[in-house]
Automatic annotation (TrEMBL):
Organism in which the protein naturally occurs: Paenibacillus allorhizoplanae
Keywords noted in UniProt: Cell membrane, Lipoprotein, Membrane, Palmitate, Signal
InterPro entries: Bact_solute-bd_prot1, SBP
Keyword Cell inner membrane: no
Record's signal peptide: 1-26
Top-rank taxon: Bacteria
SUPFAM superfamilies: Periplasmic binding protein-like II (SSF53850)
Name of the protein in question: Lipoprotein LipO
Length: 540
């Protein structure tokens, strides 16, 4: 490990999305092939057999199947069986899915009460739900374990990723990432059939977006006899709802951390950036004009999806990997045509779609309660390997439940109930190394996503995302245990934004009062710490 990170390692483990890159020439097979020494984890055939059990907590992502999955779910069981067969060591892996809307709060309570499982998934080892876990020795350092058991992990995770504060602290690694593929899967979707019905061209400037929203608001595009359509749909906690921050080149936070920019020579968080005041007032205008959903405060993930699929939403932000959630058959009218937008065109002709991310979907973190931590590293390494049986499972699920095989050829029907309702569980929710929803073989077999649309979306990501200069900055010590100074649920920022939007507080004074309060509660010291870091680490 000394060549890729100079100090001892530690790991934070989490479930999220990494896309396994697969050649379109690979023939799907449920039969394992002989692996090379560089791509397979060494089998422990000569070691004594020792049973190891790992309980993993993760958020359910708002996914219906995960909400009801038990610890003995067949996909957890089959994945553990395949790894046990491969490694020669009996291993049990049980996922406990916690509602995404309450995940931070529930994890906070569990850490406070000492009810800590062997493995935690998070967006960062420094997440406010467990902000002091590293210092308190709850998270295990994993440098030596990765060196010994993680050659595939080391080969697949970019070297620069290990220094990110989401994974490491003081030169030690505490988390193993689930990688995103593509690295920045930002997507802004639009009902192209509504554009066509209105005779309008694709919006580019902000003025054109607003003109489109006005037409959406005043035209019965879904044909139900009501003007109940909105231009853009927002969630209560602002997940997938930040596009109009992004349009100004700012973001409240990404990957669980505040986003900071240099403003007139001072490094400050975007939540107190003068541009943020303009953005808050813009969201209020959208609310006042009826261009966004009036009930956004109470909108959960499932409500958000339902509104879109009920033909009531013209544009929405989402993850490019979720394009198969928006095929015509998912919509009430069965006739929706979806396209992707490049963002908002700026005065210089460039587009802003969103910020560049870390490339990390989730972080897996081993805790001190793990009795066989080396086994879990072996398991993660197996998920990062080119093992054929593993690849088949993460693409197509369980034989004779999700697919059949005859003469070495797999038959997989994505429309079968076991796949239509459950495929996200095996393709991403229990996949620690990635996400196969955009695997070329999966896309080809599903036949529902236009490859050209995927190509367009990835092109927008390459050209239209802005840099985050604070990406590798650790959360300042003065605010890391103060979630009220962050940007998520329970924060001064989100409360101020919400109250401004619905007209509960004076918008002209509220932002300035928020900034003053934020600074007084620890923000001034955080700015000092951040500027010290920026002076040493900013790009020349």
């Amino acid at each position: 490990m000394k060549k890729w990170l100079p100090a001892a390692l530690s790991v934070t483990v989490s479930i999220s999305v990494l896309l396994t890159a697969c050649s379109s020439n690979d023939a799907p097979s449920a039969t394992d092939t002989k692996a090379t020494a560089t791509t397979e984890t060494s089998k422990a055939t000569e070691a004594p057999k020792v049973q190891a059990t790992f309980n993993v907590i993760s958020n359910d992502g708002g996914y219906a199947y995960s909400k009801t999955a038990t610890k003995e779910d067949p996909y957890h069981t089959e994945m553990a069986r395949l790894f046990s067969e491969f490694s020669g060591q009996p291993t049990t892996i049980k996922y406990e899915f916690i509602p995404s809307a309450d995940y931070t709060q529930q994890v906070t309570v569990r850490f406070a009460s000492g009810d800590i499982p062997e493995v935690v998934t998070s967006d960062s080892i420094l997440n406010s739900a467990h902000a002091t876990a590293v210092e308190n020795g709850i998270f295990l350092p994993l440098n030596d374990l990765i060196d010994k058991y993680g050659k595939n992990i080391k080969a697949k995770v970019p070297e620069a990723t290990w220094s990110l504060p989401a994974l490491s602290k003081d030169g030690k690694i505490y988390g193993i990432p689930k990688l995103l593929t593509p690295i920045n899967p930002q997507a802004l979707l639009i009902r192209k059939d509504w554009l066509d019905k209105l005779g309008m061209k694709q919006p580019e400037t902000m003025e054109e977006y607003l003109a489109f929203f006005e037409k959406v608001k005043t035209t019965d595009l879904n044909g139900n006899g009501k003007n109940d359509e909105v231009g853009y749909e927002i969630r209560g906690m602002f997940g997938f709802s930040n596009f109009f921050f992004y349009a100004q080149g700012i973001s409240p936070g990404e990957n669980g951390a505040l986003v900071w920019h240099d403003v007139n020579g001072q490094f400050i968080p975007d939540i107190i950036n003068p541009k943020m005041k303009e953005a808050m007032l813009f969201y209020k205008m959208l609310y006042d004009k009826g261009y966004i959903n009036k009930d956004f405060i109470n909108v959960k993930d499932a409500d958000w999806v339902k509104a879109i699929q009920d033909d009531k939403v013209a544009t929405w932000s989402h993850d490019l990997r979720n394009l198969n959630s928006w095929t015509p058959d998912k919509f009430a009218g069965k006739s929706a045509k979806i396209d992707l937008l490049p963002g908002v065109k700026q005065a210089d002709g460039k587009y802003l779609l969103g910020p560049k991310g870390t490339g990390i979907a989730k972080v897996y973190i081993l805790t001190k309660n793990a009795k066989n931590p080396e086994r879990f590293i072996q398991f993660l390494d197996w998920t990062y390997s080119d093992n054929a049986k593993k690849d088949t499972f993460f693409r197509y699920g369980i034989k004779d439940r999700n697919y059949t095989e005859a003469n070495g050829q797999i038959t997989w029907d994505p429309k079968l109930p076991a796949n239509a309702n459950e495929k996200l569980q095996y393709q991403t929710m229990v996949n620690p190394s990635g996400d196969t929803r955009m695997d070329p073989e999966v896309i080809k077999r599903e036949g529902v996503i236009d490859p050209e649309l995927v190509k367009k979306g990835m092109g927008y990501e390459e050209k239209n995302l802005f840099e985050i200069p604070s990406m590798s900055m650790p959360t300042p010590d003065s605010i890391k245990t103060k979630p009220e100074l962050g940007f998520a649920a329970g924060s001064l920022f989100l409360d101020t934004l919400t109250q401004i939007m619905i007209g509960k507080i004076d918008p002209d004074k509220a932002f300035d009062n928020f900034v003053a309060d934020w600074k007084k509660r620890g923000g001034d010291q955080a700015i000092k710490e951040a500027n010290d870091w920026y002076a040493k680490n900013k790009k020349k």
